[in-house]
Amino acid sequence: MKYASQCVAYWYFTCAMVLFGVQILAGALAGTVYVLPNVLSELLPFNIIRMIHTNALIVWLLMGFFGCAYYLVPEEAERDIESPFLAYVQLGLLMFGALAAVVGYTQGVHGGREFLEQPLWIKIAIVVVALIFLYNVSMTVLKGRRTAVTNVLLLGLWGIAVFWLFAFYAPDNLSLDKVYWWYIVHLWVEGVWELVMASVLAFLMIKTTGVDREVIEKWLYAIVGLALFSGLLGTGHHYYWIGAPGYWQWIGSIFSALEIAPFFAMVIFAFKMVFKGRKDHPNRAAVLWSLGCTVGAFFGAGIWGFLHTLSFVNYYTHGTQVTAAHGHLAFFGAYVMLNLALITYAMPYLRGKAPYHQTLNILSFWIMTGAMTVMTFALTFAGAVQVHLQRVMGISYMEVQDQIAPFYWVRLGSGVLVAIAALMYLWSVFGPVGERKATGAKVAVQPAE
Amino acid sequence: MSERFTKSAARNVFYGGSVFFFAIFVGLTAQSHWHILTTSTDVSTLTESVVRGKEVWEKNSCINCHSLLGEGAYFAPELGNVWVRYGGKDDAEAAREGLIAWMQSQPTGIEGRRQMPQFHLTDQELNDLVDFLEWTSRINTQNWPPNDAG
Question: I want to staple A243 with a disulfide (CB 3.0 to 4.6 A). Which of A70, B46, B60, B139 is the partner?
Fold first, then answer.
């Protein structure tokens, strides 16, 4: 660790991983209710379980992004964080809000727009959290060295905060409601989050491969350019069937089909840099997660997104298990793996140790990605059958669900494997490390520029 | 990438292009907003009870089991066209009674069946919710879903 204030990232990662656990637990529970529908039906209905599953995911990813920013901004700006104290206040507030939301949900305290179920005071607290954060990182960057990595990262983070404001606008007209709801949901995950992802990835490449910064930053601008050029108008693929004009079928199909381009570029970029660098970084697990992240995002967000994005396909697949398959692999591949990559990279520095528990970490990588792949295929097949029976033949929803039950068992099984792999990952990152490795870090792995 | 395509060129393309596409997107959003208010939804029947029904829908987080116009969870049937599925176009009274009776009889408690909770809605809330679903079924959705199964 070059700057003492980077250690705030440790606590962000810790809290993020706690919520990661909550997310997986709720996911496994929801998967269980799918196959054993009477489980908990009186105590904790499915809608509440799902709310916790999705909300915990979103909040822990954001918390991870904040941690990434607090870790990498000092190294990029070459100075300490403006105010580590504010960073801790921000974390405390966000974690309190997140846990209060989860407890509240179980007691029936929630709103009802999907993913925006937080009560108003928590939505406002999120604005406060964002303001503290943006002040803190922006000041750190402005007073220090400015790089392409921090430029793009800051733009992404400011974008997250700005689009969040649409959470406060809920028109009575359902169609309008949906149009602006996507200003948060789509412009986050298929817009500004990609800026965060690409900049963190660029940072990891600079650090682990030793390739010249100029080369990497040129790639970074090209990738985020592709992301926004396709992703902004790509929002149109959510406007096909909600009451918006018909021209969105053309615009949405064309531009969202191009959304695969930035993810493809990320794969080429990461592999090219790692081969070109010819620097054997001792943290092999971090390099593996970084490369894996680009591949996971390419398949989950890119391929599985393209699979059902063209309007004449989406007419049949919209709102089926095909969507669920895409959602799971896209979030995992792009954003979960990105966070796990940076955490794997940063933790040895944050704990002052040489890279440790590499074998266990790498094993958790393969089990987790393997299990997520199985889950994605199970849901995709379920979706294909559902599309045929329900959307083509017109058989009623519940009858069709009975037909695809076997796929839900596979999904539950793979979900349990993900949980096991997550435990392995957590142990490999937070678990005790022998004393003999305690002093290696500073000598062995000072990152190259 | 070739040497002519420099980092600053890439940066300028990124910023310029993003502003360009964002401006187009905002413009089209404005046009869509207008289209929704004038053409695809029936603003004249967006009554207070429909608005209250939307609140009932949100307060009970129906979206985290059902989908509405294809968005939401996929654990329970699509409800954007439930009014049509219940025959509301031909016999509005029967559809209303059918939907209310369904909600009041939950949960079924049948082993191996997905359970919808009992939300203890008042008569007014039930009727408002049905008004909201009826209004929603009349949105011009470009003929989605493909059939009544939703």
Answer: B139
Q: What is the ipTM of this complex?
A: 0.96
B123 to chain A nearest CA, in Å? 20
Q: What is the mean pLDDT of residues A192-211?
A: 97
The domain defined by B46-150 folds into: Cytochrome Bc1 Complex; Chain D, domain 2 (1.10.760)
Specify the 3-state DSSP secondary structure of B72. strand
> Choosing among B142, B143, B147, B148, which should be mutated to test the A contact, i.e. which has the most A CBs within 10 A?
B142
Q: A189 in the Ramachandran plot: left (φ > 0), alpha (ψ -120 to 50) or beta?
A: alpha
**B7, B31, B144 ranked by CB distance to A315: nearest:** B144
Superfamily of domain A158-430: Cytochrome c oxidase-like, subunit I domain (1.20.210.10)
Q: Give the ranges where A258-320 is alpha helix by DSSP (H).
A: 260-277, 284-297, 304-307, 311-317
| Cβ–Cβ under 8 Å, residues A34 and A412 | yes
| Average pLDDT over every residue of B14-22 | 97
Query: Is A107 part of the contact surface with chain B (CB cutoff 8 Å)?
Result: no
Whether A91 shows a pLDDT value over 60: the answer reads yes
| pLDDT computed for residue B3 by the predictor | 66
pLDDT digits (tens, 9 = 90+) for A164-190: 999 999 999 999 999 999 999 999 999
